[in-house]
Amino acid sequence: MKPLRCSVLLVEDDPLQARLYQQALPACSWRWVKSGTEALAALADQLPEIILLDHVLSQGETGLAFLPRLKERAAHVPVIVVSGTLAIAEQIRALSGPHSAHYVIEKPVDLDVLEQTMATALRECGLGETVAALRSLERAELIESGDRERLFTERLDRQHQLLNRLRGSTSKPNISALAAEFGVDRRSIRRDLADLVARGQLPPEIHPREDD
Predict the structure, then answer these.
(1) What CATH number does domain 127-206 carry, 1.20.58, 3.40.50, 1.25.40, 1.10.10?
(2) In Å, how far are 147, 166, 210 from 75, measured between CA atoms?
(3) Does the model's pTM come out above 0.90?
(4) Is CATH 3.40.50.2300 the classification given to domain 7-123?
């Protein structure tokens, strides 16, 4: 099993807990902040692939109080709330509504469960949910499935599949093989990879040379 690789914004006030996560998942790119206020500033700088949000934060702040604002800044980024203080009713509230988290994990954290949850969030949430919602709207004819809208949805879906396949890799992919598999030209695959690199979701070395 390949090590999990993704960019994570960790919102956690306890340095020992933060170190535990980083040591358990060393292949991930971690950005650690201690409060919701710092998390909002970090999102303005760069969007991660996952937000790992503790409930009790520094400066008297709480994760649930900042959750709606974090989701407003990064609606497509999966949020995993981690806490040992949330009652069942609060956990339900965290998982409910338009600005909800995707998962709640209780402390003490089982690191294997955390890794599995993060892997599932990367594979099925975020962009995957967006594509599924667009497909559903098209089927219900609530949005017109004209060429522009259809191409946008297909491109987003293709980029999500490419990201899931190539996440963690530093080898240049076979552009011709990918183009044949997805039924598009090589230029489309190049553009998809360029977008993923520009968003920081894939490393720059994965982008093919012009003569590839």
Answers:
(1) 1.10.10
(2) 26, 23, 34
(3) no
(4) yes
